[in-house]
Amino acid sequence: PHTHTPTPPPPDDSGDETPASQAEQTEVQTTLQTLVRKVEDLSTCNDLIAKHGTALQRSLSELEALRLPPDNSERVRQVNERATLFRITSNAMINACRDFLSLAQAHSKKWQKSLQYERDQRIRLEETLEQLAKQHNNLERAFRGATVLPSAPGGKGSSSSRDLSDEDDENEFFDAMEDVPEFITVPADPRYHRRTGSNLSGTSSEGNLEEHFTEDQTPAGCEVTARDAALTRTRRTGIPDKPNYSLNLWSIMKNCIGKELSKIPMPVNFNEPLSMLQRLTEDLEYHELLDRAAKCESALEQLCLVAAFTVSSYSTTVSRTGKPFNPLLGETFELDRLEEHGYRSLCE
C-alpha cells in the first residue's frame, strides 16, 4: 500500500483573514480618498477657468470699445476672434468636466456603499462556510466514535490511541502522489471479509484483496481425483472501506469562492473507485431472467421477465451517490462467472 507523508495542519483561516481583510479595506479607502481629491481638484480648476474666462472676455470687450487707430483695431479684432474660439472650446471642455463632476459626486457614495456591501457579504459567506466545515468535522468525529466496534481486551490501548490520533489529526492534509503508479493496492478492513466453511486455508491473509485459492484436504490413503485437487475459489462477500483520508471541506469550498463553475475542479474524493466498464458489466447480474423468459410459452410472462431484467440494472446504482471515474484509453474489465452462472464478460 502506498502511503502519503502528512503535512502539518494549516493555520487557522480565521486568524489569517483579519490582516488580509484590513489591508484590502485600507486599499479601498485609499483609492476612494484619491478619487475624492481628484474630483475636488477638478472642481477647483472648473471654477478658476470660468473666473479667468469671464475676466478675459471683459478685458477684450473693454479693449474693443476704445477708439484706436485702424491698424490697432484690426489687430484687436483678430485677437477677439481667437479669444472667442478659445472661449467656445473652453466652454465645451468645462461642460464635459461639469457633467463628469456631477456624475462622480452623485455616484461616489453609492459605489462606496456597494463595495462595502460586497466585502461584508464575502466575509459573511466565508465565516458561514468555515462554521459549516467545523460542524461537518464535529459530526464526522462523532459518527466515527459511535460506529467503532468493541475491540479485544488486548487491543484497548491501541483503540484508545487510535481515537486520540483521529481527534488530533482532524485537519490533517495529504500531499498528492508525484509518480502515480499503474495500480494502487489499498489495505482492506478484515471484518468485511467473511469466511465460509468451505475455506479450509488458515494461512491466507484476511486483509488481502486478491482472490483466495485453497486446496481440499483429503484424508490419508484416499485417492486424490482431478476434481478434488482443483483449486476452490472463495470469493469475498463485501468490499473494503475506502482509505480514511481526511477530507477538508473548508479548503475545497474556499478554493471555489469567486471562480466560474467551468473552472472549479471536482475532488476525486467524490468519485467511486470503479470504472464505467464495471458498471456496464453489473447489468448482467440478473441475466437468468432472460433464460427463464426464453423457456416460457406465454408471451405476457416473457414480457414481464424482460421488463424485470431491464429495470434490474438500477439495483446496483440505487445506493450510489458518487460518479465513476471517466473511461480511459486502454481500460479493460473482466468478469469470470463460468462456474457459477455460465458467462464471462470481457470489456475494453
From TrEMBL:
- Gene Ontology cellular component annotations, sorted alphabetically: cytosol; perinuclear endoplasmic reticulum; plasma membrane
- The answer to keyword RNA-binding applying to this record is no
Top-level taxon of origin: Eukaryota
Pfam families noted in UniProt = Oxysterol_BP
Q: What ranges does the record give for the region Disordered, renumbered to this chain?
A: 1-28, 143-168
Give the keywords, sorted: Coiled coil, Phosphoprotein
Q: What is this protein called?
A: Oxysterol-binding protein 1
Source organism of this protein record: Callorhinchus milii (Ghost shark)
